[in-house]
Structure prediction request, 268 residues.
Amino acid sequence: MSFALFSALFYIISILFIAPMLAKAQSGEQIQRPNKNWFILTALFAVICHFISLFPFFSNLFSGENFTLMEIGSLISVLIAILATVAIALKIKTFWFLLPIVYCFATINVTLAAFAPSHVIQNLAQDLGLLLHILLAMFAYAVCFIAMLQSIQLAWLDRKLKTKQMVISPLLPPLMMVERHFFRVMLSGEILLTLTLLTGAVYLADFFGNENIQKAIFSFLAWIVYAVLLIGHWKYRWRGKKMIIYTISGMILLTIAYFGSRAMLGMN
Prediction:
């Protein structure tokens, strides 16, 4: 529990480091390129503490014992935070405006996992195939969540350009760069989701049974939505509102699939 508190604290400190700069960039004030050292340090402490706070979850996952949906949500949020932080460390500046949302999401999840009660779920089969399926599902959700945030960022930048409110700032990435990164992330999420569905069909004996049919259907619907979006962009150059509608719709379907029932991916 103490590691969860430290994680939440460092997430908040990281947000405080970057929020003023983002606010100035949005208002049009000229700012210098941010010094990433302190921010990366606090973000690193946050994700490390977050990860350590999940050690009981990993222990229960590998031993087949009980754990909660809150712990699963916390693991997904730390994966998202790690991916976003690594992107910034690699100087991918399209992620700067996503970080407050990512870290707020992680702060809420790590706090809820530590203090809030949640429905207990249990592993039904202790094998590497099922474990691979679960891990792929979590990474797929994390990557698709980041793609959704990038689609919102893309729409915001497009609106700024059309209303001539865009200002030059080291924190504001070019529109075409954001779009290129968005579709790369979206394609990665679709590939991970494809692998999730395949491993579920292979390693989950009752993947299409009564207990898991909701997850199978909604996951497949999300896969179709993302596939239509990618094909539409590739063949018809879809952008703007269509892109946001499809991305958010897919995320809603995926969230229902993962968290909308009493069980997740072969557990109950």
User: Anything to note?
Assistant: The chain has a mean pLDDT of 78. The chain is about 75% helix and 0% strand. Residues 128-162 form the longest helix (35 residues). Residues 135 and 196 are 9 Å apart (CA to CA).
